[in-house]
Specification:
It contains 3 helices and no strands. The chain is an all-alpha fold and about 120 residues long.
């Protein structure tokens, strides 16, 4: 029969350190992507309006946003939050120090023996 290691099972872990659910992570990444694509659509519309109104060089600014945003949207949407090196952090309670009565030797040290 094999001996079981109990080092990992005997420790409690903080729930707040648990990784995010996969479905919640996907929803968050989709929202980020859709937000950036929405900004891209606005940039594209502004570019068309400025171009039709012969705005000149001002047209380049939103056009650059409309061209560059898809790349950044994909990179941001595909990035995950970096987990800690160990994943979980063991729970370490911060309990108060137990009271210890002073020993008799320490109470005698303050007394003066001279008459």
């Amino acid at each position: 029969m094999r001996g079981r290691r109990s080092t990992g099972r005997d420790q409690a872990y903080l729930v707040t350190e648990a990784p995010q659910a996969r479905s919640a992570e996907i929803n968050q990444r989709q929202r980020r992507y859709l937000l950036m694509m929405g900004i891209r659509v606005v940039c594209f519309i502004v570019t068309v309006v400025l171009f039709v109104n012969h705005a000149g060089w001002l047209t380049v600014i939103p056009a650059f946003g409309a061209i560059a945003l898809p790349y950044f949207a994909v990179v941001v949407a595909n990035s995950r939050q970096q987990a800690g090196a160990s994943g979980f952090r063991p729970y370490e309670p911060s309990l108060p120090v137990r009271y210890q009565q002073p020993s008799d030797d320490s109470s005698d040290a303050g007394k003066d023996d001279s008459p």
